[in-house]
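Run folding on both entries below.
>entry_1
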Amino acid sequence: MLFVGLRVMQTKHKVYAGAFFLTILVLFSFKSAQVSSLSEPTKSPSFSPDINKKIIKAFLEVWQQYKSLHAYEFEVVQKRLKASTMQARPIFGLSQIFGKSRQYRLNVAEKILDSGELRVSDLPEEVLKGWFAHELGHIVDYENHSNMGMIAYGIRYSLSDKYKREREHQADSIAIRNGFKQEIIATKNYLLENDFISSKYQDQLKKYYMSVSGVELCPEQVVPIKPKVVL
């Protein structure tokens, strides 16, 4: 029994040590990825087949303003989404964890969440650009987190209303600092003032996202103070 106990203890120590070194390796690999990406040539985003040309055009016009993301592999995929209209996320896998750079993906739904039959491609161009600017703001925000940090980001975003609100405000702030204040305002007005957008969705926008008045007061070159969360 003592021998078995020692073997178990040794095994646990190996597991802990392995987890520790894997964490260090992941963090180091992401740090290396950030450094190497700065010297890489500009990459053009790719798009899923049959994606609407209006979406491609609006996205590319916004993309041009986000110079810091041009060194990364990026793809825009239009597909059915159950719980959102757009999802900006890093792509994780062995090649991304141990490779030279991160990759990102923007998933775009075919229809606006809780809006009946309103299609994303039917949105006014200014609204579409404001929405893309916000989502790319999330990607810029992700750049402040390591690969392991992104796991913690996802958990906190899912469990904490306060953290979710901070991150959504930060995405708006980044979009504003990249020159899309008017587009962000247009997007918010469109979603909050139209009857075909469900009241449930509008309540979520009011709870987590920066208000129109907040956007109007937000300096375009300075990060605004994060507001307190009303629970």
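>entry_2
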Amino acid sequence: MKTARWGLMILLVSPVGIAAAHPRQNQAPQQDPVAAAARRTRDQKKDQTKTSKVYDNDSLPTTPGGINIVGQAAPAGATAANAPATDQGAAPAPGQANPAAGANPAENGAASAEITSVKEKLQSLQKDLDILQRTFTLDQQMYLSKPDHDGDKIGGAKLKSEQSQMADKQQEIADAQKKIDELQSKLTASSSAKQ
């Protein structure tokens, strides 16, 4: 009798379990709205065609001695407004008048050339100083990271040598800047005296 009861219970409960599981199998899985939007966007991008400009010898201007610039031309009024300010000792652009040119062209040309060469030397010295400072910083970090850096006499001597090299470069930079200032003041004084 007990078996009959259990059998009857199983028969009655199993359709309920099957019916409860059956609707879940037929239901479509819920989609993430973010993922669906991403799929739609990706599909739209695939449909769009990208047109790109191809530059070749036929589409570039061929002016002898000219400069080929790829891109849109700047508006006429924007070129003068966006032009960088020129130094006093720098050579004027073609078509512009040099205010000191009326004084003595040979003197002004020599002074301008000397100013240009000193400026180039100054830039070189500044780059050298920058490299020395970076090297010193790295060497100092390596030296100080050692637990027994007080006993490292070679590392300490190297750091002192680098410091003296940096001081020498800074002095050379100051001298070069002073020379540029003197040359520019001479150039402006000679041009104003002759006018």
